[in-house]
Amino acid sequence: MKAAVLDQHNFTQQVGELQIPEILPYHVLIKIKAASINHHELWSIKEQSKQSPVSIIMGSDGAGEIVALGLHSNPELMGQQVIINPSIDWGNDYRTFSKDYHILGFPQQGTFAEYLSIHERYVAKKPEHLSFEEAAGIPLAGLTAYRALFTKGQIRKDNKVLITGIGGGAALLALAFAVHAGAEVYVSSGNDDKLAAALRLGAKGGVNYKTEGWAEKLLKASGGFDLIIDSASGPGFSDLVYLANPGARIVLYGRTAGMLPPLDPQQIFLKQLSILGTSMGNEEEFDAMVKFVGLHQIKPVIDSSYPLAEIQQAFEKMKSGDQFGKIIINIPS
């Protein structure tokens, strides 16, 4: 099969031929139709501390068709078009993941290949309204956004919600989920074109955080926020505390802007704020997210698509930060 392998010398993606993976008991073999790139892959490459003796096939997101079954696998799964859950071995504690937890794509083979063998518990039926490309843009970003909004953020109808860093896959799906949950949603970005696009997708307002006095302007426009979903961290996090209404929840799932700044404890305890961390989610949340996507006919925003042979160009696009939505990798038939 064709697969993109992480070169252990220059950490680029190199497409080559590998063996089709063995189908273990209770596993299914999926013919991957499409995959997508996440910042998770970029962080994994950046944090590689040593070369690995094995070929690493990355990729957390994917959708395809089940073409073979392992021993004891559910025969009804044969031929199903599926979306893949990349959150592996979460465990039984809904509050946090187990010591065995990992995200599909490292060290376990990921979706940047023609075939993937994975335990049957990590597949869900692809919502019928989604193409394979669209479905491939859902898993990691959708699960992250769903847990942040519903499990940790406890979003309610008519909440005022701020989503930072609009343009990434998780932020855009968080926007769609929050709008369909009945919230009034505002967004932030350092790019005016991305703000305008978010307004077309249902955001009520937005602000460019590179402009002077942006937090004051946003507070005046919105009246403050009951729920803030943040992917950036960094120096601007103190502004989020300022923008939070009394009793608000601030849910943090990323660190693209770096370490948190010094915070005023008085603002946090007098306003009765909850600052919550989240990462990915469990199997029940994934299934609930897929059902929510199907019920509301939600589609991810797709920025661009690349064939597997051009996957390194797709990674360069992701590194640039210019994308608005998901970057899709089409896998050859």
UniProtKB/TrEMBL annotation:
It comes from Pedobacter steynii. Keywords: Membrane, Transmembrane, Transmembrane helix. The keyword Transmembrane applies. GO terms for molecular function: oxidoreductase activity. This is D-arabinose 1-dehydrogenase, Zn-dependent alcohol dehydrogenase family. Residues 4-329 form the Enoyl reductase (ER) domain. The chain crosses the membrane at residues 161-183. It holds the Pfam family ADH_N.
